[in-house]
Amino acid sequence: MILKLGDERLYQISEPVTDFNTAGLAEIEEKLHEAMFDFRAKYQVGRAIAAPQIGIFMRIIYLNMGEPVLMINPELSNFSDETFELWDDCMSFPNLLVKVKRHKFCTLTYTNRKLEKITQQLTDDVSELLQHEYDHLNGILATMLAIDKFSFKWKD
User: Fold this and answer.
1) Model's pTM, two decimal places?
2) Is the pLDDT of residue 128 over 90?
């Protein structure tokens, strides 16, 4: 079950993964996959989910844009000065959009399910998406990043 806006656990900072037991990580990945695909079935959206959104306070992100990717202990760096505004949505508040500002480019480094270190340059929508999910690992929700008091609207 995905934790909803107002659940204080969403504001908790997640702990780094220190036990790389692949069976345990596979179980977490399965839970993230199920939660995301249940959400997709209901709302027809959802590309990624962070472990804290399902009550697992570990630094793990699951992405599925055709291929499943498990990101263990992800780190974002090298943020571009260039930013853009967008209406952000979230599985933790599925009917609400929040206008936020995100960096156009950044660098992502993480450990994958094979325990390999991966570094990628992210741009545009993938950069925005991973910034959103990374914020969850730090107890930050898009509602906390709203550009101003007029930056909220209901989804149609």
Assistant:
1) 0.95
2) yes
